[in-house]
Amino acid sequence: MALVKWRPSLDLDFDHFFDDLSFPINSQKTFNLIPAIDVYEKKNKVVVEMPLVGIDPKKVDISIENNILTVKGKTEKKSEVEEKNYYRKEIRSGNFYRSISLPKAVSDSKAIANYQDGVLKIEIPKISVKKSRIKKIPIKINEKK
Question: How do the residues of the chain divide into helix, strand and coil, expressed in percent and rounded to 5?
Answer without folding.
Answer: 10, 35, 55
